[in-house]
Amino acid sequence: MNGKLTEDQVLQRFRGNMHCSQVVLMEVAEDLGYDREEAGRIATPFAGGMLRGDTCGAVTGALIAIGMRFGNGELGNKKQDRICQKKLTEFQERFTARFGSTICRDLLGYDFSQPGQTKAAFADGRVYAVCPGFVIGALEILQELLEAPEDE
Predict the structure, then answer these.
(1) Are 51 and 15 in contact (CB under 8 A)?
(2) Per-residue pLDDT tens for 51-82?
(3) CA 105, CA 78: separation in Å to the nearest integer?
(4) Does pTM surpass 0.90?
(5) CA angle 116, 21, 134 (to 5 degrees)
């Protein structure tokens, strides 16, 4: 990662119409050998738990990055598949231990699949109050996993 994002920098990205999933993936994309803008496009649909309040966008962005680094792209490569699964499981466990869940609606207290909930979450400032912490936390955990050796 090129430095460490601050909460203010995350908020600036949010106000520039970037989502949690995009902020996380774009922050690590170049270090993984991928184009930053392309990573942003790839991560766009995962915002707000895929606009359903499901898996947190910061988590999804991190899991995509884990796939970029450790994923299996070869038919029959069970070893690489196991490595990737171990990394994604560790990420999810650590994120859950730190924040209590990986589910957007649980973390945020709003269910984006319900009418008016997205607007309400922004209107009361909840997104800006808590989501930068999830992004920063996801990036901290992700960075540690990306730097750790590939072991089964």
Answers:
(1) no
(2) 888 999 999 999 999 999 999 998 988 999 99
(3) 34
(4) yes
(5) 85
